[in-house]
Amino acid sequence: MSSETTIDAFRKAEDLVAQRRPFEALRKLEPVLDVEPDKPSVQLLLGRACFFSAQLRRAERAFLRVLELDPSDHYARLVLGRTLQRQGRLREAQTQLRLAATMNPDPAYQEALGEVSARIAVEDG
């Protein structure tokens, strides 16, 4: 796959994820993964597509790979936290969301952390 073709496939996959068409995005992304498996942006897009298609374990692996490559990626921590939350792994989610909110004080990050923390408080009762 040429560099231009890889870029085009990646952009098409991004558009498909934005349109909430994750299965189509995954099909477009497969050849990109063959060429650029260790590129954080490719793994992040893979994780997002997997998240939206409820392939939560695969999404988790992709987000963890992003963090191996770039531990300072606050967005990867946010979506990893959301992925763990959807799996019911609230304490792990809280840890990732707390880190993300510390790294980037965006209100959406604080809201995600608050949501998980409230669920933990209710469960602990």
Automatic annotation (TrEMBL):
The keyword Iron-sulfur does not apply. Pfam families: TPR_16, TPR_19. Keywords: TPR repeat. TPR repeats lie at residues 40-73. InterPro entries: TPR-like_helical_dom_sf (IPR011990), TPR_rpt (IPR019734). Gene3D superfamilies: Tetratricopeptide repeat domain. This is Tetratricopeptide repeat protein. It comes from Allosaccharopolyspora coralli.
